[in-house]
């Protein structure tokens, strides 16, 4: 198949490739340059597939890195972003391997930093942190490992006590029992377990 025309699209840096007088596919300028494509070049079907795959993977890498520039992401989040660009599964797999090899994505590091940030920035129970990691696409085994290594039961207890003390001072209630009930519900909403909350309230009452 002969390249009969290479025409620039309205989309900057993108070109239409015509083979034997008919539109065949679009390519980025970098791909055309890297393969040295010119009008009258004779392309085999195998070469065409190689060029299209190269173009798609190159685009996907750039899209993924732009996505990661804003903040760290999990593998699942990046995979979902690449899928939204309608890339093939084969291209996505190759892009993900590239990103992992060069440490652009690292779920273990992400989970560790996530747990530490949740522990420092605002008090939340270990159960909630695990749940949020799962929502980000972190598997159960890694989630459990990250929480157990970076957010101890003692730290969780102290976080719950601090939250209880702060909330109790500002919450209003009909009586003391009503205030305690509201404090209990508040801590529960933050992901602390029933048993832990009871322990905190028992400590604070002594």
Low-confidence stretches: none
**Assembly type:** single chain
Contiguous helical run count: 10
Number of strands: 3
Distance, first to last CA:
86 Å
Largest sheet: 3 strands, antiparallel
**Helix-strand pattern:** EEEHHHHHHHHHH
Q: Which bin fits the share of residues in helices?
A: 55-70%
- Overall 3D form: rod-shaped
What structural category do the secondary elements indicate? mainly alpha
Mean pLDDT, all residues: 89
**Beta fraction:** 5-15%
Radius of gyration based on Cα positions: 27 Å
Biggest sheet: strand arrangement: 1-2-3
Provide structural commentary.
- By secondary structure, the protein is mainly alpha-helical.
- Helices cover 66% and strands 9% of the residues.
- It contains 10 helices and 3 strands; from the N terminus they run E-E-E-H-H-H-H-H-H-H-H-H-H.
- Strands 1-2-3 form a 3-stranded antiparallel beta sheet.
- It starts with a strand and ends with a helix.
- The mean pLDDT is 89.
Sequence-ordered SSE layout with sheet pairings:
Elements: E1 3-8, E2 14-19, E3 22-28, H1 29-35, H2 45-70, H3 75-84, H4 89-101, H5 107-121, H6 126-135, H7 140-150, H8 153-170, H9 176-189, H10 194-205
Antiparallel strand pairs: 1-2, 2-3
Helix pairs in contact: 2-4, 5-7, 6-7, 8-9, 8-10, 9-10
